[in-house]
Design a protein that fits this description.
- The structure is a single chain.
- By secondary structure, this protein is α+β, with helices and mostly antiparallel strands.
- It has 3 helices and 7 strands.
- It has one domain: Peptide deformylase (Peptide Deformylase), CATH 3.90.45.
- Helix content is 24%, strand content 27%.
- A 5-stranded antiparallel beta sheet has the order 1-2-3-6-7. Strands 4-5 form a two-stranded antiparallel sheet.
- It is globular.
């Protein structure tokens, strides 16, 4: 098991767009395992490589008993109305806020062996795909909130006991999105 420290809000890696994966090798398989182990230990519903300090387009997920990963994702959002729901993030421990997301999402990419994958999700799975793909683009869930909600979220971040810390290994308590942070 290779549990990695989760980077917290304020770490520049979380705002840096990740690079596409080009090498499908042993190192990539280790990264997927590290992401999976770290996500499951946290516990979380998803974890993107930048959250453990790796600038590659890889994320893992564990939603509704489905465990998996996606590399170099391309997201297709439904034209259905956005749904606002409580959303947390492992890089914002203990905090959750109403965040609008599409109800349905299709994520296309490849697995750790370079084989094509198409994943379809609704509700929490769709939210997870959107949240993790945002991480790969340097976008955080607070960026998706309206101005009033973002202001409240930033106040909570400033008041959080972890605020201002630099990437410690944090054992997180379950919260938001049905007991899981994304």
């Amino acid at each position: 098991m290779a549990i990695q420290p989760i980077r917290l809000f304020g770490d520049p890696v979380l705002r840096t767009p990740a690079e596409p994966v080009v090498d499908f090798d042993k190192e990539l398989r280790k990264l997927v395992k590290d992401l999976t182990d770290t996500m499951m230990d946290a516990p979380g519903a998803g974890l993107a490589a930048p959250q453990i300090g790796v600038g590659l387009r890889v994320f893992t997920y564990y939603v509704d008993e489905q465990l998996g990963h996606l590399i170099n994702p391309d997201l297709d959002l439904s034209d259905e109305l956005d749904e606002e729901g409580e959303e947390g993030c492992l890089s914002f421990p203990g905090l959750a806020f109403p965040t609008p997301r599409a109800i349905r999402a299709v994520a296309k990419g490849v697995d750790m062996h370079g084989e094509p994958i198409t994943l379809e999700g609704t509700d929490l799975m769709a939210r997870c795909f959107q949240h993790e793909t945002d991480h790969l683009d340097g976008v955080l869930f607070i960026d998706r909130m309206d101005a009033k909600q973002r202001k409240l979220a930033m106040k909570a971040v400033r008041e959080a006991e972890w605020s201002g810390l630099s990437a410690p290994a944090v054992k997180l308590s379950p919260h938001a999105t049905h007991g899981k942070a994304l």
